[in-house]
C-alpha cells in the first residue's frame, strides 16, 4: 500500500458532534508534528470540547448544542488553511526525561527479551535508553503514552498471555513501541524496568507527565537511586 | 442535609454531563448513559442542566432523605416507592425528612435518573463528578466508587415543591428496536453486502455489556481490513472486531482504539440503547448527520421551551 500524505488534513464528520482529521497514513515524526501543531491551534477555538490526537489522526469533539455545527467545521478548515506547518517545527515538542531502574526484580522479562533479540541485558538497556521516543498517542488507561519508535534490534512481540496485574511505573516494550504503566492494569507487554516517577497525579497542575507529541528519553538509574527516589520493588 | 444510602443496590452512580477536556490524556468522559432522561430530570426541577444526579441501574437501591426536598425521577421504571407507595418516572415528588425511597427491579428500561432540587452536592474531580469505576475518578468520594451502604450524599434542603411532569409526547419509547446511527469512520471498508447486513439484521445484546460498551451478537459483519492505526473514538462509535460482532462504545469508552468502525450511534440514540438489557434486540437505522442534529435540536428545544 502506498503511503498517503495529505498536505492539509482531511476533515470528516463522524457524528453530530465530532470530526476526524486525517493527516497521513504514515506513523512518523512529521505526522506527529503536524498533529501537535493543529491540536495546539484548535485548542484555542471556542466550542471545541475535546481533542484526541493519535498516530495519524486528530479526533475533534465540539459542542454542537451551543455552537453552529457548520460554522465550527468551517472555522476548523479555515484555521488549518492558515497554519504554516514549515515554520512551526519541532520547537513545540517538550522533552520528558524518565529515570528507569532496569533491574531483574522490576524487569522480569529482561532475560526473555535479551534471548529473543540475541543481545545481552546491558545491550538491551543501552539500546532502550539511547533512543529518543515520540508520544504518538495517549490512551488505554489515563496517562498511558504509546511511545515510538523503538530501535529495530529491540523489536519483540507481546507476551502470549498478558499479566493480570502490571505494577505501577513498569517500563515495557512490544513491537515498535515502549511505554510506562501509569496505573496497575493488566498488560501483555514485555517488562524491562521500573520508574520511581509518578506519571499521573490528578491533584497536580500538569495532571499527566507525558502529553501527546512530547519527546521522551529514558535514563538508567541504579537500584540505590531508584529506592532513594521513592521506587518500590513490590508488585510481582 | 443528605441522602443516607441504606441499600446501595447493584449499580448506582453519581453522574453529571461528563468529564470533558481530558480525553487527550486518555481520560474518558463518563456521564449519563441516557442523556435525554438525565436532561429532563434536571429540567423538571429547574436545575442547572449539568446538576449531579444518581443513575440507578437495575434497581435494589434504598435511600433515606435526611431533609425535605423535591425530587425528579426519569428514565426506566425500576419499581420505585416512596415510603412504600409506588411512584412513577417522568415527574417530580415532594420528599420530607425521614422519607424512604426504594427501587426494586426493572418494569421497563434499565437505568433510572434521580435528581434532587439544586443538584447533589458532590465535589468535582477534573471538573466533573461523573463516576468512572475503571479510572477511579468521580463519585461521592471522588475515587470512582459506586454508591456504598452508609454513603451520605449531600443536597440543599428546600420546602418548596412544584408538581411537574414531562409531556407524554416527549417521553422516549424504550421499546423501539431502531437505534439511529450515522455512517462514517471506516464504513467504506465494508462491502455493500455487509453494510446491508448490518442495517438489515437484528442484533442481540450480550451479557458482556456495560457503561464502556455494548457488545452485540448477530450475523457477523466482515471488513476488508482487520485493524487500523489506532485513532480517537467518538461517543457511540460502533467498532467491528475480527469476529464480526459489533461493539457500541458508550460513556465510559476507551479514548482510542484500532478496530474498523461503521459509524456512530447518535447522542440520544445511545440513550435508547442504554435502556436495553442483555438478551434484548436492536436494529441499526441509518440516519444522516443533518437528521441526527435536527432530532437532537428538537429534543433540546422541547426541554428549553417547556422550562
Structural commentary:
- The complex is a heterodimer of chains A (236) and B (307).
- Helix content of chain A is 22%, strand content 31%.
- Chain A is α+β, with helices and mostly antiparallel strands and 236 residues long.
- Chain A has a 7-stranded mixed sheet with strand order 5-13-6-7-10-9-12. Chain A has a 4-stranded antiparallel sheet with strand order 1-2-4-3, covered by helices on one side. Chain A has a two-stranded antiparallel ribbon with strand order 8-11.
- In chain A, β3 (48-53) and β4 (57-62) form a beta hairpin.
- Chain A is elongated.
- In chain A, 42% of the residues are buried.
- With 307 residues, chain B is α+β, with helices and mostly antiparallel strands.
- Chain B has 4 helices and 20 strands.
- Chain B has helices spanning 35-44, 192-200, 267-274, 289-306, and strands at residues 2-8, 11-15, 53-57, 61-65, 69-77, 80-82, 85-86, 91-95, 100-103, 108-116, 152-154, 178-183, 203-205, 213-217, 231-232, 237-239, 247-249, 256-257, 261-265, 281-287.
- In chain B, the strands form 4 sheets. Chain B has a 7-stranded mixed beta barrel. In chain B, strands 7-6-9-4-1-11 form a 6-stranded antiparallel sheet, with no helix packed on it. A 5-stranded antiparallel sheet of chain B has the order 2-3-10-5-8.
- In chain B, α1 (35-44) packs parallel to α4 (289-306).
- The mean pLDDT of chain B is 97.
- Classes of the chains: A alpha+beta (236), B alpha+beta (307).
- The A-B interface holds A 12-18, 20, 25, 27, 39, 49-59, 61, 64-65, 69, 137-144, 146, 183, 200, 202, 207-208, 211-212 and B 20-27, 29, 125-126, 134-137, 182, 184-185, 229-237, 254-257, 263-264, 266-267, 289, 292-293, 296, 300.
- Chain B: InterPro entries: CT_A_B (IPR003778), Cyclophilin-like_dom_sf (IPR029000), PxpC (IPR052708).
- Chain B: Pfam families: CT_A_B.
Amino acid at each position: 500500500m502506498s503511503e498517503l500524505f495529505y498536505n492539509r488534513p482531511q476533515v470528516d464528520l463522524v457524528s453530530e458532534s465530532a470530526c476526524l482529521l486525517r493527516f497521513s497514513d504514515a506513523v512518523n515524526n512529521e505526522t506527529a508534528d503536524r498533529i501537535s501543531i493543529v491540536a495546539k491551534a484548535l485548542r484555542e477555538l471556542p466550542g471545541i470540547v475535546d481533542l484526541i490526537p493519535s498516530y495519524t489522526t486528530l479526533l475533534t469533539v465540539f459542542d454542537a448544542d451551543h455552537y453552529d455545527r457548520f460554522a465550527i467545521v468551517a472555522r476548523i478548515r479555515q484555521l488549518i488553511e492558515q497554519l504554516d506547518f514549515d515554520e512551526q517545527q519541532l520547537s513545540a515538542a517538550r522533552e520528558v526525561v524518565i529515570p528507569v531502574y532496569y533491574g531483574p526484580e522490576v524487569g522480569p522479562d529482561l532475560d526473555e527479551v535479551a534471548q529473543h533479540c540475541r543481545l545481552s541485558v546491558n545491550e538491551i538497556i543501552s539500546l532502550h535508553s539511547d533512543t529518543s521516543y515520540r508520544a504518538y498517542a495517549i490512551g488505554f488507561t489515563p496517562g498511558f503514552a504509546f511511545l515510538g519508535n523503538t530501535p529495530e534490534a529491540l523489536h519483540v512481540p507481546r507476551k502470549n498471555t498478558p499479566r493480570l496485574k502490571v505494577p505501577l511505573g513498569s517500563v515495557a516494550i512490544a513491537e515498535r513501541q515502549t511505554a510506562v504503566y501509569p496505573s496497575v492494569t493488566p498488560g501483555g507487554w514485555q517488562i524491562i524496568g521500573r520508574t520511581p516517577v509518578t506519571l499521573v497525579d490528578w491533584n497536580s497542575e500538569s495532571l499527566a507527565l507525558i502529553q501527546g507529541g512530547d519527546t521522551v528519553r529514558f535514563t538508567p538509574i541504579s537500584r540505590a537511586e531508584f529506592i532513594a527516589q521513592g521506587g518500590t520493588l513490590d508488585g510481582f | 442535609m443528605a441522602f443516607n444510602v441504606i441499600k446501595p443496590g447493584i449499580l448506582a452512580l453519581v453522574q453529571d454531563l461528563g468529564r470533558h477536556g481530558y480525553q487527550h490524556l486518555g481520560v474518558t468522559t463518563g456521564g449519563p448513559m441516557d442523556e435525554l432522561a438525565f436532561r429532563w430530570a434536571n429540567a423538571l426541577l429547574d436545575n442547572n442542566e449539568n446538576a449531579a444526579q444518581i443513575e440507578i441501574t437495575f434497581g435494589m437501591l434504598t435511600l433515606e432523605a435526611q431533609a425535605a426536598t423535591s425530587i425528579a425521577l426519569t428514565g426506566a421504571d425500576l419499581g420505585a416507592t416512596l415510603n412504600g407507595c409506588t411512584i412513577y418516572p417522568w415527574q417530580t415528588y415532594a420528599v420530607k425528612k425521614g422519607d424512604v425511597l426504594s427501587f426494586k427491579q426493572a418494569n421497563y428500561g434499565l437505568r433510572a435518573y434521580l435528581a434532587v432540587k439544586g443538584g447533589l452536592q458532590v465535589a468535582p474531580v477534573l471538573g466533573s463528578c461523573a463516576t468512572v469505576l475503571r479510572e477511579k475518578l468521580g463519585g461521592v468520594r471522588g475515587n470512582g466508587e459506586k454508591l456504598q451502604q452508609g454513603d451520605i450524599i449531600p443536597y440543599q434542603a428546600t420546602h418548596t415543591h412544584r408538581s411537574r411532569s414531562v409531556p407524554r409526547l416527549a417521553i422516549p419509547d424504550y421499546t423501539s428496536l431502531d437505534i439511529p446511527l450515522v455512517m462514517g469512520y471506516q464504513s467504506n471498508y465494508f462491502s455493500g453486502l455487509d453494510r446491508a447486513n448490518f442495517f438489515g439484521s437484528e442484533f442481540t445484546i450480550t451479557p458482556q455489556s456495560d457503561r464502556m460498551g455494548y457488545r452485540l451478537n448477530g450475523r457477523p459483519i466482515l471488513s476488508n481490513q482487520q485493524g487500523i492505526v489506532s485513532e480517537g473514538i467518538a461517543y457511540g462509535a460502533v467498532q467491528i472486531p475480527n469476529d464480526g460482532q459489533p461493539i457500541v462504545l458508550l460513556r465510559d469508552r476507551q479514548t482510542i482504539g484500532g478496530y474498523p468502525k461503521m459509524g456512530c450511534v447518535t447522542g440520544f440514540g445511545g440513550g435508547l440503547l442504554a435502556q436495553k438489557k442483555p438478551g434484548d434486540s436492536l436494529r441499526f437505522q441509518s440516519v444522516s448527520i443533518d437528521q441526527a442534529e435536527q432530532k437532537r435540536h428538537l429534543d433540546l428545544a422541547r426541554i428549553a421551551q417547556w422550562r
